[in-house]
Design a protein that fits this description.
The protein has 178 residues and is mostly helical. It has two domains: 17-57 and 143-176, no CATH class; 60-132, Arc Repressor Mutant, subunit A (Orthogonal Bundle). The protein is built from seven helices and four strands; from the N terminus they run H-H-H-E-E-H-H-E-E-H-H. The chain starts with 16 loop residues before the first helix and ends with a helix. GO terms for molecular function: DNA binding; DNA-binding transcription factor activity. Residues 46-148 form the HTH arsR-type domain. This is Metalloregulator ArsR/SmtB family transcription factor. Pfam families: HTH_20.
């Protein structure tokens, strides 16, 4: 029984009601808000790419030193309602890590979007981008809840593959019927 907001009007020939329900759940998992007739392989790939970027951001925590630096920045006070900011040398001194190691890890954390950098004179101050972190963690949490629903409904593997198959099949049907 399809409890989603996605409605199949045309181009879904050859699919059972149960299969369409699975496709609708998979589409919701990816955050598709368009009508199925507007789905394209490119749109699905954009959604998959966004998810990979989010997972890539979390991969930055795989290095123990990088995680320690991130936690240092997270837990070292706030100023004016914002996360505390520190220079490379302040972090290196307080954590007793070399400047080059701290600098390397800060650049990686910045590259994946977890840090903001503010320049004041010759110094650069690093702080956690809490809004971005909340966005990433919130999105991942929502994906995990939806993934649990996919598993309960018997939708294995990657939902994008199911949707790409649906879109490709319907594009072929539409083009052949012209």
């Amino acid at each position: 029984m399809n409890s989603s907001n996605i409605k199949f009007t045309g181009g879904a020939a050859g699919y059972t009601s149960a299969e369409l329900d699975k496709i609708a759940v998979a589409a919701e998992y990816l955050g598709l808000e368009h009508a199925p007739e507007q789905w394209t392989v490119e749109l699905l790939e954009q959604k998959r790419t966004r998810m990979r970027e989010q997972v890539g951001t979390l991969r930055a925590f795989a290095d123990e030193s990088r995680m320690d630096i991130f936690l240092f920045l997270m837990h070292r006070g706030t100023t004016n309602g914002e996360m505390g900011s520190f220079t490379v040398s302040e972090i290196a001194e307080r954590m007793q890590i070399s400047l080059s190691t701290v600098s390397h890890h800060l650049q990686e954390l910045k590259r994946v979007g977890l840090l903001k950098v503010e320049r004041q004179g010759k110094e650069r101050y690093y702080r956690v981008d809490l809004d971005y972190l909340i966005d990433i963690v919130g999105n991942l949490y929502q994906k995990l809840l939806k993934k649990r629903e996919l598993i309960k409904q018997g939708i294995p593997g990657c939902p994008t593959e199911l949707l790409v198959e649906f879109v490709t099949k319907n594009l072929n049907l539409t083009e052949n019927n012209k």
